[in-house]
């Protein structure tokens, strides 16, 4: 790190948006300044919720920013979608508190993308090397970087972090002219099941619209938030995101938020909250005010697939969880994260555990490929790219 130093920001807003955004691609909305600042400004990612921002800014000798890593001091492991609760228990058992820990991630967002914004390879290496050192210097139990793309994973691996794998399910656009073209690629039993689910929703009289977040008024957003909150209330949890966050980020001009709205007559009965970036649609949250047969599948999957085909989007990342997505045309994709633990005993034990887990993920991928929803002439393969997680998410 010769000639480079790290300083920390208590808020993303402490750095001009133009500077921050110059290190992260337009096509990936979740590490953009607008998204992270809105989470912090409106109480979603804050010390009160267990997400204390401490973003790392890498600077050269002239004070010019060379890299940025979104960074949080975490008081728990919720909202991360990569589960380390057993590691926390093991740490406690050897007399070392696990929390707080250091987290390089996007709050509440299990979507693979850049985590180390760097101007060049040297800056990426410096950032990756700095993260475990920050944890060590502050006597933290561990450092975790979640849902990594390839370059960031490689850099953190070279810095001594352990790789963890899991599986999500994404839909891929194979040049379909319409939804019917997609359905025709499915095997007979899966095609019949999908069409039956769509028919049940149609027979219930539900209709759908897809609207950008800035195309609906505040009253409609209040209803969207009511539906979103209901998903958490049914589980006895508080929502991760606040109403003020949606009224700001969701309504601002040019927002990437896309709402899939399901109406029963004139009543908004369900919503899927998605975010569009580059050639990808990201499914994030959903809610409904009552149960309709197959409504979740229609709102969260089939309407999103139709939107991708209409808009020419190439990928639909429908969130964490869900082998049930496989039967509906989604394909397995490997996810990756990197972990460093300060205690040598725990680091060694986790390394052994992750080796077995990676082998299991590979075997699971092979098994999933054997149960392709597509016809024999359209084989399914597990993607070897960076993009299970779980938590209370869209999936």
Protein architecture, described:
The chain is 35% helix and 24% strand. It is an alpha+beta fold and 395 residues long. It folds into two domains: 4-166 and 334-369, Gcn5-related N-acetyltransferase (GNAT) (Aminopeptidase, 3-Layer(aba) Sandwich); 174-313, 3-Layer(aba) Sandwich (Aminopeptidase), CATH 3.40.630.30. The strands form two sheets. It has an eleven-stranded mixed β-sheet. The protein has a four-stranded antiparallel β-sheet with strand order 1-3-4-7, covered by helices on one side. The longest helix has 26 residues, at 344-369.
What is the helix fraction of residues, given as a range? 25-40%
Biggest pleated-sheet summary: 11 strands, mixed
Average pLDDT taken over every residue: 93
CATH topology title of the largest domain: Aminopeptidase
> Span between N and C termini?
41 Å
Order of strands, widest sheet: 2-5-6-8-15-9-14-13-12-11-10
H and E string = EHHEEEEHEEHEHEHHEHHEEEHEEH
CATH class of the largest domain, anyone? Alpha Beta
Radius of gyration: 21 Å
CATH architecture annotation of the largest domain:
3-Layer(aba) Sandwich
Helix/strand/pairing category: alpha+beta
Proportion of β residues?
15-25%
